[in-house]
Write a structure and sequence with these properties.
This protein has 211 residues and is mostly helical. The protein is 54% helix and 6% strand. It comes from Amycolatopsis nalaikhensis.
Length: 211
């Protein structure tokens, strides 16, 4: 997707964002510093009114629909795979390490994927994540990226946090590109929400890395 195109592909020194190639979606101890009122003490994610502002409060799409170009439809489907990629990576890391940030953000990614699936159903876009088990992806390039990032994060907690930072940083850049051409109100709203969530996630990972 060109919007959350954590749709990245493997390059010789790591992962490389390819937001322009929407036709080939590929990717992606104690509390951290910066906690306090209005912030989740375990993950560093902002909260408001008792609900996480990381996307876990998303329950549906209330804004009116619009129209999507073919490229935007491809972006939407690719975004679903990116959300699943992030969720699956963080879920795996949550089982390996004590840093609660992984479990908290993995739950948020579930809500994000649900929101993207609502949009796909509304616009008649085939869901590439349907029926895919954890760690399995429809698009070969996404699978390759997931495998590489998983291997990187398996070397230790700090490496896993770095993977999280890479995923969220790339995601922020791609969402900004997606928003530039989005005109459908419901798509704009969800993409903006996902962008804000990724910014909070990035802050959370950086707080843990700075400990």
């Amino acid at each position: 997707m060109r919007t959350r195109t954590l749709i990245t592909t493997i390059a010789a020194g790591g992962i490389l964002s390819v937001g322009a190639l929407v036709a080939i979606p590929a990717f992606a101890g104690g509390p951290p510093t910066g906690t306090g009122p209005g912030r989740d003490a375990g993950s560093g994610v902002m909260v408001q009114g008792g609900m996480n502002r990381d996307g876990s409060c998303l329950t549906g799409v209330a804004d009116p629909s619009g129209s999507l170009s073919e490229a935007q439809r491809t972006t939407l489907a690719a975004n679903a795979e990116e959300e699943k990629l992030a969720h699956d990576l963080y879920t795996d890391f949550a089982g390996r390490y004590d840093a609660v940030v992984f479990d908290r953000i993995a739950r948020a990614e579930t809500a994000h994927l649900d929101a993207v699936r609502t949009l796909m159903a509304r616009y008649g876009v085939t869901d590439p994540t349907a029926g895919q088990a954890q760690g399995h992806f429809t698009t070969p390039a996404v699978q390759t990226t997931y495998d590489k990032l998983l291997a990187q994060g398996a070397s230790g907690q700090a490496a896993a946090l770095e993977v999280g930072r890479t995923v969220e940083t790339t995601d922020i850049a791609d969402l900004r590109k997606a928003l530039d051409g989005a005109t459908a109100p419901d798509v704009q709203r969800i993409y903006q929400h996902l962008l804000t969530a990724s910014q909070h996630h990035l802050t959370a990972f950086e707080n843990w890395l700075a400990r």
